[in-house]
Amino acid sequence: MKKTEIGAADVLIRDGFWGGRIKNAVENVIPYQWRVLNDKEPGAAKSHAVANYKIAAGLEQGEFEGCIFQDSDLAKWIEGAAYSLLYKRDPKLESDLEEMIRTIGKAQRPDGYIDTYYILKEPDKRWTNIAHGHELYVTGHMLEAAVAYYQVTGRDSLLNIMEKNVDLIRSVFGHGEGKIDSYPGHEEIELALVKAYRATGKEKFLKLAEYFVENRGRVPGFQAEEGFPKEGERSKVYGADYHQAHAPIREQEDAEGHAVRAMYFFTGAADVALETGDESLKAALERLWKRTIGRRMYITGGVGSQSDGERFTIDYDLPNDTCYTETCAAIGLAMWCLRMLRLSPESKYADVMERALYNNVISGISQDGERYFYVNPLAVEPETAKYRADHSSVETSRVKWFGCACCPPNITRTLCSLGTYVYTRAGSEVYQNLYIGNEAVFRTESGEAKLVCETEMPWEGRAKISCHGSAGIDLRLRIPSYAEDFRLTRGGETITYTVKNGYAVLDRAISDGDVIEVSFQMRAQFIAANPRVAEDCGRVAVVRGPLVYCAEQVDNFRYLDTFRVSPDEPIREEKSDLFGGIVALAVQGSRLDVSAWDEDDLYRPADAASEIPCEMKLIPYFLWNNRGEGELLTWLRSNGFHRP
User: Where does the sequence pass through the membrane (predicted)?
Assistant: First the structure.
């Protein structure tokens, strides 16, 4: 078994930006979500996830309630709670986790089966709805939780439960007489199985993951009686490509179908490619990644443009006010990018991973951690969004919980395991992908080394990295695509470096006592979209470093889209006390004088004189809607082309 993963337990975040969010997740959000899952949080949509397990275990009376995959909400919470123990050992939380795991064990059937929907609601329908039943999806999330709990605490109670469940799945699925020769409708178990393989060294986990990845898209696919829509309008949305089952992965050209499923599938496939050394699978993933990022990703790192089917549509179809861009899909994209970095350490993967984490992922959670977005649009006009059917998935304010609540606990587990994303390893080389403050421990053949990173990101392009311990580290430092004047110094002296795949290769390995200072400029700049993106033609977005900026009504005026920015005018940066301290931006331009129009005057000859000069204030996109409901605008109309 290869040691390729630098896990959450190896890297603890100590960071002004992320550290506060993780602290809030540990101290407030984990308990809040536990109350929700136990149906004890006033005003939150009912979960019933814990109750379902207690009923299945014979500890309570009642019936199953919730989505068919309701168990996965609890699984993601357990995973996040396990990782939170890295930051704060909490006896009460550990007791709650142990009690919940015992309940899960009591709910498990003698043959290893565990899924409360089918145990309580349709016990005679196990493994009959592979396309939409989510049994394997639920297993995947609970297996991830089991691995996290084992890695953090050393306790294998949940891992043993899930291993028995996986052994049952191995007996049910596969090639050969009497087995179901298929693959999950909703991918997730593939990446979870590889995690279990890495944690235990047991080949059976990897073999099952490889089977599911390789079998996907092959005939007969799902059981014949399930089928896919073959005729009519719905086949456009829920056909084979909805499940990424339209072709084997090596023959797929684009990310298709349900965006979360696609991201989880590609993540699991990349894990399998890394562990098996399969170059053809790696090549297929590189092709899919290039096409996804180059044609189907929002500037915020969001993916999945259509609410119907929560799916990808066609190249360059990236509407701003009706886009779906589910929080879980952005998390899935970050996961996929991390796996691509493990396969091939190229900074382009880290650039996109960083973009998703700093924008579309954390826009899904409020500053206090108790309200959430499922959908993350780039433009919102509240009155329109509340009325029009094609905006029905768009919330104009974050909510306390969802009936389908896959996103809230997904954000929590991502925050509490953020250390996983900072470094990757390739042989003896360690790659620093993100300049996030952290303390990381690396064990090598020559001993142990500790890296401490202090940083001012994402507000300033500065970081200080110090090394402690007996072992040296062959460190590679990412040069972000937006970085200007990238410099490295040691003891005040400039370090010469070479560049390989977007990483700075130092003149020597760093060792005990070395302190490397990283600095670069992050200039706020206007970004244009490919002209093929019809929604963004004649518009520009504003980015600074990894952050995408947006305009909110509260800082500006009603009818934000009446503003036209002047790209040749400089962008003003200013430190603001908003949200505990941010870098805010201001751009110059003009806006239509709405007051000059009578409300009953719908059309009239165009009149340039109705424009008035004005300034528009911008804040980071992830912070929108933390000060009440109002308009949002990310892509600004432009009155000309920017001349660098």
Answer: none
The catalytic residue among 323, 328, 337, 406 is 406
590, pLDDT greater than 60: yes
Note the pLDDT of residue 463: 97
In terms of phi and psi (left: phi > 0; alpha: psi -120 to 50; beta: otherwise), the region of 559 is left
Residue 309, phi then psi, degrees to nearest 5: 90, 0
- Write the pLDDT tens digit of every residue in 319-364: 999 999 999 999 999 999 999 999 999 999 999 999 999 999 999 9
Question: Where on the phi/psi map is residue 385: left (φ > 0), alpha (ψ -120 to 50), or beta?
Answer: alpha
Tokens of 121: 């609601």
Using an 8 Å Cβ cutoff, are 80 and 152 in contact?
Answer: no
Q: Specify burial of residue 156 (Cβ count, 10 A radius: 0-12, 13-18, 19+).
A: middle
Place of tokens 């979960």: 47
The reported pLDDT for the residue numbered 1 is: 34
SS3 label, residue 347: helix
Give the Cα separation of 136 and 261 in Å (integer): 12
Q: For residue 585, what are the contacts with CB-CB under 8 A and spacing of at least 6?
A: 524, 542, 544, 549, 571, 572, 573, 574, 617, 618, 619
Hey, what are 224's tokens? 């014949």
| Mean pLDDT of the 19-24 span | 96
- Strands of 515-521's sheet in order across: 11-13, 438-444, 447-455, 462-469, 515-521, 484-490, 493-494
Pairing mode, strands 563-565 and 636-638: parallel
- Whether 310 sits among the annotated catalytic residues: the reply is yes
HEC letters along 130-199: CCCCCHHHHHHHHHHHHHHHHHHHCCCHHHHHHHHHHHHHHHHECCCCCCECCCCCCCCHHHHHHHHHHH
How far apart, in whole angstroms, are the C-alpha atoms of residue 458 and residue 524?
12
pLDDT tens digits for range 487-514: 999 988 999 999 999 999 998 889 999 9
Examine the residue annotation and report whether 406 is marked as an active-site residue of this protein. yes
Mean pLDDT of 416-442: 95
pLDDT at residue 286 in the model: 98
| Joined tokens for residue 166 | 């996986």
Residues present in the chain in total: 644
Residue range 539-549, pLDDT digits in tens: 999 999 999 99
Question: What DSSP line would sit under 481-526, residue for residue?
Answer: TT-EEEEEEETTEEPP-EEETTEEE-SS-B-TT-EEEEEEE---EE
Catalytic residue, from 5, 65, 310, 631: name it. Answer: 310
Give 222 or 399, the one with higher predicted confidence: 399
Give SS3 for 52: helix
